[in-house]
Amino acid sequence: RADTTADPLTALLAHSPPATQTALQCGLLDSVISALRQVHLSLLVQTSSTDKLKKNNPLVSEMVSYLTLLTSFLYGSDSVKSAAAQLGLADTVHKVWLWCQADPLHLTMALDLLITFTANCPDAAQTLVLTSTLSGVGQRKVPTSHSLVHALVSLLTRERQPLTVRARALTLLSHCCQAHECRVVIAKSGLLARWSDQWVDRRQPLEETELMWLRFILTFTFFIEGQTSLPKTGELFAQLVQCAESGRTSSRPLAVAIIRNLAALPANRPRFLSTKSALTLVGEKLLSGSSEEKRDAALIAWALAANHQKAKVALRGLGLVNRLQLALATSHDQI
């Protein structure tokens, strides 16, 4: 039985970096990924639909054992992550994705594996757009139109998913932002528009739900793909300004930080200058925001005014120069 061997190995690899390196040198990673591929083929032969899965299916139990073992194997080891990326780990996980989705617990395990795999590893993140569910086809060399990143976006559009699953999916998408190809898929997916619609429909979403989305959007907008796509997404820009102004105390700093990221792109300057509420927000945060918010507001003002006379005039007209001076004089931190 796979779990008879996997369980002690999982415990050992989770606590021993030397054991991890020895196992890698001995080819254990290749063997486990190959075994997971074999489980996928066996599941295909046994059943093509999760509806036909019997409870306590030994193949599913074997799949779970391998997912758990791989998570421990990858934890904290850049060399193992790089090797796993070359061996097509993401593609293999995508092959068994259908069966993982049959149980929220198994889906959580798959997401935990991928989160560990992609943490601080751009090469691993980039492989998530090279996957497919097609049997007999390995990891591609160019992005596919039905990759794991697409599957994550699809997962997040299903409102009935448990909060723990959605939180992990957003964490994984945040890791995916390390790779340009993944950011392009996210920007084109319409994911931000769906969240914007949900944000409007649910006047007061759960605080944890709102925070995890804002954290993801903050990560995404550190990159040009996010900075470019967000202002074009329905009312999301206005919603962020409103959240920064009068949202939950826990959400406001995140919303201000996202707006700061958007201001860093010169192409977004016209949107700011034509949105009085955004400029007013900057002044309010300089006057009465937290130290973090004052710092971000100052960065927004600087980004908008840099080498742009029209923006300088607009900011002066709102009295932002005096507020900047006051914020600098009263702040305990350097703005």
UniProtKB/TrEMBL annotation:
Matching Gene3D superfamilies: Leucine-rich Repeat Variant
Instruction: Write down the InterPro entries for this protein, in alphabetical order.
Output: ARM-like (IPR011989), ARM-type_fold (IPR016024), Rotatin (IPR030791)
Q: Which domain of life is it from?
A: Eukaryota
Instruction: Provide the GO biological process annotations.
Output: centriole replication; centriole-centriole cohesion; ciliary basal body organization
GO CC annotation terms, alphabetical? centriole; centrosome; ciliary basal body
- Coiled-coil residue windows: none
This chain belongs to the protein called Rotatin N-terminal domain-containing protein
Q: Which organism is it from?
A: Graphocephala atropunctata
